[in-house]
Design a protein that fits this description.
The chain is of the alpha+beta class. The protein has five helices and ten strands, in the order αααββααββββββββ. The N and C termini lie far apart (40 Å).
Amino acid sequence: MKLVAGILIVFILLAIPLSTNAIALVNRDVILEAQEYGTKCKQMPLTDFLQPWLAYEENATILNQTTERAYLYTPFLLIANDARDKAKSKQPVELADSEKVLADYAGCLAFAITINGSTETFNNNVQVTIKQDKKIIKPYQALPNVPVKNPWFPSEPQFTAHSYFYFRDSEIVLNKPATLVVITKDKQERHFYFDLSKFK
């Protein structure tokens, strides 16, 4: 009997992830916490709701509507955002919906990037990579959007692009810092620093 109990304990310990990284750990409690965050914050402005997952461009001198930024869409945020949308439209927030969100984004880290430029084509052929230690990781999918004219036109910058980039999380060490590097057609380079161990 003791032998069976010992084997069972070893099996349970092996099944528990050893990483202390918050991004990788998603269980029922985390799902419920994310759903609660989304429903509690349904009336919060989106920029405030997303704030914990935000990184500003490293060389930004001011932080306002013109500041270039990137958001890291972790599994927690994806679930919370889905719950927020459902709560806002008075739909029930179900466990099955959150599990579907997790399945849709399984194995990836998604980044939403907002950058500025002076022409309508500044975002053409944008290059995005993650630098982590000496490793450079390319996205497996890129959805760069066409830049739109800013509401503060004709002031500089005149155009803003909101784009999405998806990376395989298996290629990234999820409990270490990483820098998202964005290079536009005009050879301007932007850096967004994320300490991945600090994100839910």
